[in-house]
Structure formats: C-alpha cells, structure tokens
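Continuing from the previous page of notes. For each protein in this section, the sequence appears first, followed by its structure tokens. Read the first protein now.
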Amino acid sequence: MKVQTAFRLEKELIEELKEQARKNKRSLNNYVELILSKVVEKEPNDETIEAIEEAMHNKNLKPISDVDNFLDSV
C-alpha cells in the first residue's frame, strides 16, 4: 500500500533528482523511492546484528565438514 507524502526539498536537489530519474528511465517518484529503499535496507535488523555479533565472537559456531550437505539443509 502506498501513502502520499509531501516533502520540502531544495529546488536544485529536485532538479538533480529529476535528471537522474530521467537518465535511469524512471519517474521521479519511483527514483526517490528506490534511493530511500536502498538506504533503509542497509540497516540490519536485530536478528542480523545478533548473528554478526555471534560470528565475530565465535559464539555457538560449529565447523562445517560437508558444505554441500550444509547448503542442502538451509
């Protein structure tokens, strides 16, 4: 579901966004949504942060002896 939202941005920024959208064959709305989605997606969620911490500190890690069987199990 999409929600209409209004922002106040510098005119020069809007013009640059329009130009970049045009170069990427996208609407301005779609281009801005794409950029914002990429920024938000870079933030890891709590589960990912916990897994990174666990891996960095070698907590609960088990060696994988057979990579093919491991990949089949996930």
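Done with the first. The second protein uses the same format. Note its length before scrolling.
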Amino acid sequence: MTTALTRNQTLLFVAMGCVFIVLRAMSVEGLLPVLLKPLPILLLAWVAWRNLRGRLRAGITAALLFSALGDVLLALQFPGQFVSGLGAFLIAQLIYTYNFLREAEWRAGIFSRRIAPLIAAAVALAVIILPLAAGMQAPVAVYLCAITAMAVCAAAVSPPSGVLFAGALAFMLSDSLIAINKFVQPFVGSDVAIMVTYYLAQLLIVSGLLRRQAAQQAGSTQE
C-alpha cells in the first residue's frame, strides 16, 4: 500500500494524458484516440483499488470506471452520444457524492468558506446555460445538480483534504467548459482545456484521498 501515487505512476498518467490531448488537438480521428482517452482514468482506478482501504475502495474505483466508460462513449460517434456519456458521468458523480457524503462533517465554517460560493457558482452557471441547452435542459440540470452535490460533499469531507477539494473544483470547471463550449459559445482550445482540467481533477481526487488515508493512519499509529 502506498500513501500517494508513485513517481512512475504519476509520470505514466501524465504521459498517457498528454498523448491523447496532443492527438485531440491535432484532430486525429479513429480508434486510437478512443482507446487512449480512458487509459489515464483506468490507471487511477487500478491505483485506487490497490491502495485505498475501507468503504472508499470499491466506491472510488467504481466512480473512476464509470468515468472511463463516459470517456469512451463521448469519444465515439453515434446517435445519443452526448446523453449516453453524460449518463455514465452522472453515475460517477453520484457514486463520488455518496462516498464523500459518508465521510462528511457539516460545520458552519466550511459552509461559509467553501460550500456557499460553490452553490452560488452553480446557480450562475445554470442561469447562463440552461436557457441555451435546447431540448437538453432536463439532463443538463440533473447533471449540474449532481456535480455540485459532489463538490459540496468533497468540501465537507472530514478530516478535510485541500487536494481532494481542489480536484472537485477542477471537475466542476472541466464540465463547465464543456457546457459553455457546447451550449453558449465554442472557443479555441476548448478540447485541450477540457481534458487538462478533467485529468487533473481525477488525479487530485485520488491523490487527495490517498493522502487523507495516510494522515488518518499516521494519527491512529501515534495514538
């Protein structure tokens, strides 16, 4: 068991992510990008399964596997592609939310510093995006609620983890960029920005949980 991703695991994660992002930036089509896109997330799922302990182990691994499924679905071209990918990520967010909620401790200070600004940002995003989401207001609204709940519960996890919370924020940012690019205004470099923030989010979530676990174990040993 390790307390964080090893140097080699981190380098492999970054290398695989960079290869996919470069291919995406070059508009490379075909099977290769589809196969490469989920590999960094599958690596994190393997790390989580091997190293996390207790009730978080299966949950976080499952969330990562559903994320990898969403990656594949969004990379393919077929009718209903976006809704299918959104559904897989919705399941991932619900699993994250459930697992973070079980580790949460609700305190007034956390709400005022972290949770209230998160909710305000989510409401602002909904006001901007939902009127422009054509016939997809319902699934987009459900997903927005789910990822906001995930970030809120990550903010309340106790003992707190700044790395985990940063990962949740990065995930919200990545999905916000997707929504803005799809429904509001396409922007140059969107593919790169979305994938960089997405990969970073998942890496920070797993790293934050591993560090938190190590700190808990160190505290138990000292006691």
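What the second structure shows: The mean pLDDT is 93. Residues 190-222 form the longest helix (33 residues). We return to this in next week's lecture.
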